[in-house]
Sequence to fold (404 residues):
Amino acid sequence: MTKKNQVANTNYLLYWRHLRNLSLEQLSGQLAATGIGYASTNTLNRWEKGETTIKPWAVPALAKILKITPEELLNGPNDLNPALPVQASAAYTGLDLEIAEQVINMGYTSWIASRPQEARQAVERVLPWLETMERRAPLSSFAKQGKHLIARGHELLGVLALDSLENDTAISQFRQALSISEEIGDQNLIAAHITELGDAYRRKGDKMTAISLMETALEKSPHIQRATQGYVLEMLAYTHADVGHENEFTRYIETAIDLLGHSGEGEGAGKRDFIPFEVLEIYGKVMRDFGHPTEALTYLDRAEEALRTRPNVPRWQAVLTISRAQALCDAGDLEAGVTTAINGLTLAHSCQSPRQMNRVRKLMVKLDGTAYRDAPALVPLRETVRDIYAGNRSPLEWHPKHGM
Fold:
């Protein structure tokens, strides 16, 4: 059977049968009782799966049994969630999609502005409607635009899951985003979503899978924008650094800087900004990991300079502040490092970012295993970590779900 025929035979018989709590046997019996015609359970099952088309005589009969209209049997329910921002119609419209795009853009803006709950609510509000429209009108002239928005919605949910330390959820969301971006053939989306999927595996600890995915994304370089290519190289370099491949890291990160650090701001595949700050901050962070804290501080200074064009992004300020704290401590400036770490932890806490908060907690554990463990400078850091994670101090009345 061809894909075209599968689309042509799509209907909502299974949906309505389950909604009415009817078995195939019950539906077959009720259909026979009408005296109009007979369909076996096997025939009904094939109609539900779209393997064969519902016979014309059966459409009004089934609709009457299920207490719906024939149109609802073939196209789905007329009434959707009233909380959605647009009135569902029988197909996409340009105005509907414009509103949906604004909602998703608002979600990305809320995430960047450190309001993750608002970001999640925005995308979860519009995504069900978009997915319903995709099922109802797969051949609409607006279908590709709708799928593009669905892919971006799942991408944002993946990003939010990563920041909340929910790696498996992030992998699932990025896989859905990638599947849709492959359907519509958007090479920038495909490369970005493969890379984000790889980053989720990296954070889960599966570095080899991460590298393999990102190398696959890199193969699309001739067909993607410079900003997206730079993002792929940036994350591939970061993953190589995680497994100690310093030469590979240097090679990829230098190219990423050429694409991102000297080209100003680029719009990413998911309306996320790939900016010089990000690649320079990663360079500094990795230099510290490779045992070069003084050189790390140089790159972090450059990252801070790049961030001055975006001064009102506390999430990125938290990332940079924590990286600087780590480098200062490794460079032997414990007091400055601890003070900076406390500032970074407070920023991350106000941004509701468990992942960034966890970096400070790991720094404290690391310092407790060194000669600095009895230093007076560590006392305020321990107290701050304890207060925040115990819930005794909560600037936004938000408490991390993970314990010490």
User: Anything to note?
Assistant: Residues 8 and 127 are 24 Å apart (CA to CA). Residues 3-75 form a domain with the 434 Repressor (Amino-terminal Domain) fold (CATH 1.10.260.40). DSSP finds 20 helices and two strands in the chain. Residues 116-136 form the longest helix (21 residues).
